[in-house]
Amino acid sequence: MVREALQNSNTEQSCIYTRQNWNEEFKVFPVPDLPYVGELRQDDPWHWGTGQFAILVALQTATTDLIHLIGFDLFGVEGYVNNVYKDTKSYDPSSKSQVDPSYWIYQNQKIFENFPKYQFNYYVEENFPIPESWQGIPNLKIIPLTDLEKNIII
Length: 154
Description:
The longest helix has 13 residues, at about 100-115. This protein has five helices and five strands; from the N terminus they run H-E-H-E-H-E-H-E-E-H. The strands form two sheets. Strands 3-4-5 form a three-stranded parallel beta sheet. Helix 3 (about 50-60) packs parallel to helix 4 (about 100-115). The protein is of the alpha/beta class. Strand 1, helix 2 and strand 2 (about 30) form a beta-alpha-beta unit. It has one domain (about 30-150).
């Protein structure tokens, strides 16, 4: 995916990130370190997803304490992959079974917990099943995607 991104971007204007053990090879930015140390498999950076690293990059470069999360769908649609990149050269076909979102749910929660000074506005489609473990997180606000324009000032 990094090779594809490099082939299809203007590297003078793009900020491309990859894992810390690959960034020098590609001459791109390294993703940030995890904000905590854990014992579980999902605490290992190798098992972190692009979305979760994108949130860490956003936090690393933030000029505000309000982080808007858009497009973090987590769940498949009717049992199949639900991703804007599906059916592209380096991604899964739309006919592939959905990915188990449990790691993403856990890792997002770890981010929310480890960055309590930031407010996370998480925009979701109608009928989005909010993970039970996210209930009561004080700096997380679940907002219907239809309210996006009301909450983002450009």
